[in-house]
Amino acid sequence: MAGVVRLAGADALSRYDLGVLIACRDGIAPSLLPAGRRADTQLRGGLDVRLDSGATQRQLDIRLRGEPLRGLV
């Protein structure tokens, strides 16, 4: 297998929850992150930006697990 592949866990994660994980990793207080519903803003773009990595998982014959993230957010 060569080239760029899409790879992500199976669990959906909000932009806020992803931000919290990144903030915690980088030693930033999650309380500093603004929270709200993107649907209530004028920001453009999709609301659901999950990455489907099913083809990559099938090609690599692996199952990606999201369980370790559940306790972090």
Please compute the radius of gyration using only Cα atoms.
15 Å
β-sheet strand percentage: under 5%
The end-to-end span amounts to 33 Å
Give the ordered list of helices and strands.
HHH
| DSSP strand count | 0
**Broad shape:** extended
The amount of helix comes to 25-40%
Mean pLDDT: 79
Structural class: mainly alpha
Largest sheet: none
Low-confidence stretches: none
Count helical runs. Answer: 3
Overview of this protein structure:
It contains 3 helices and no strands. With 73 residues, it is mostly helical. It has a domain at 15-39 and 48-70. The radius of gyration is 15 Å and the shape is extended. The model has no long low-confidence stretch (mean pLDDT 79).
Summarize it:
By secondary structure, the chain is an all-alpha fold. The protein has 3 helices and no strands. It has a domain of 48 residues.
Outline the fold blueprint:
Layout: H1 15-25, H2 54-60, H3 67-70
Which key terms come to mind for this protein?
3 helices; mainly alpha; 73 residues; 30% helix
